[in-house]
Amino acid sequence: MPHPFRTELTLENRLYFNHGGQGLLPESTIEAITTAYREIQHRGPFSMEAEQWIAGHMTHTRKQLADALGCSPNTITFTESTSHSMNIPLWGLDWQAGDGLMVSDCEHPGAFLPAHAVAQRYDLEIQKFDLLGGQHPVLAVQQALKSNTKLILLSHVLWNTGQVLPIKEITEVCRKRGVLVLWDGAQSSGVIPAQFEEWGVDFYGSTCHKWWMGPAGIGYLYIRPETLEQIRPTYVGWRSASAYVEPIPWYQNGQRFEVATLPSELFFGLAQSLKLHQSFGSGEERYARILELAQQLWVGLRDIPGLETINAEAPTSGLVCWRAHALTSPQDLTHVVQVLEAQKVYVRTIPKPLCFRASIHYFNEPWEIEKLLEILKAIGSDYSTTMTHSCN
Fold this sequence. Notes:
392 residues; alpha/beta; Aspartate Aminotransferase, domain 1; seven-stranded mixed beta sheet; 12 helices; 13 strands; 40% helix
C-alpha cells in the first residue's frame, strides 16, 4: 500500500531522490501558501488586521518548528536559508586577529565560503582537518583543535558522503576546550530527530525547503541561550527590537537577528508541511523508515558490478553516495544524471569525492529503490557507451 504522504505529491511517474537538494512541495502546502496570499490581500496587505493575523501565525509556526527541534521558540531565529544561518554567528562573534576558525574537508560551500570571507576580514587562521580519510570524527576533532581555536564549523550529516557525526560527543569535547561549534543541519534537519537542548549545541542552522519539504526561502538558526550574548547582530532592522526608542531594547532572544520583512505567506506553507510530517508518524518513526529505505539502496548498489558505495557501513542518514569505476570526470557523471533525468529519475553528482548521491525520504517506496537499482544494473560497467541505450 502506498505511503499516505504520496497522495500529497505530484510525482507524475517520477523517481525523485533529490530531497537533500530541494524537497517536493505537498499539494496542501501549495494551497496554504496561495490561500495566505489571497487572505492577506483581502484583509489589506498593510492593515492592522492583516499584520495581527500574520504575527499570530508566525508565533504559531515558530512554536511548531521549535517543538520539532526539541527547543524553546525563543531560541529560534528565522532566516532565508542554511547559508544565511551560518553567516549570523560567523560574522557576529568578537573575532581577534590570529583566532582560529576550524573547518573540515567536508563542508558545503554555503558554510565554507562565508567562513573564509570572515577569516579574510578579521585576519583569522583557517584550520582544516580531514574527515574523508576515515578517522573517527571525535578523535579527528580532538587532534585538530589548537589553543587558539575559537569556533569549529561542522555538518551534522556530511553532504558529500551521508556520514552522521556524533553531535553530542563532539560538542562536549569542544566545550571542555572552550571552543564553540556551529552546526550545519542542511542534511539532518527533518531526518534525524532533533533534541537541541539535550545535545547542548551552541549554534545549529538549516533550511526548511529540503527534508522538511517547506517552501524555498525559509531557514532557521538555533542559538543556545548561554551563547546568545557571544554574538552581535551584523544586520539589524525593525524586527530586531521590541521598540524604537533609545537605548534600543534589542530582543533578548533569537529574534534580535531577524532584520525586516519576511515572506510571511511562505510560513503558512511551512506550518502545513510540519503538520503533515507529524500526522504521518513521530520523528523516530520517520527516521527509521528513511534508514530502512536507504539501506535497501545501499545493499543493492554493493551487488552491482562496477559500483562502489562511498561508505562501507550501512547508511545512518537519508543520503546514499556511490561511485562508478568507469567514470573518472565530472562531465561523465553529469552525463549520467542528465540521461537519468530524461527518464524522470532524479539524483545528483557530488564533486568531492566524485560520486552520485541519492536522497531517500520516508515516503519513497521500496519499488522505487528497486527501479533505480534495475536501471543502474542495466547500464553495466561501461557507462560511456551503454548509458543512453540502456535507459530507453
